[in-house]
Amino acid sequence: MPITFHKEKIEVDLPEEEKLTSWLFDIASKEEKQISQLSYIFCSDDYLLEINKTYLNHDYYTDIITFPYKQGHEIESDIFISVDRVRDNAKEYNTTFESELLRVIAHGLLHMAGYGDKTEEDQDKMTEMENQCLEMWNS
Question: Which fold has domain 3-138?
Answer without folding.
Answer: Collagenase (Catalytic Domain) (3.40.390)
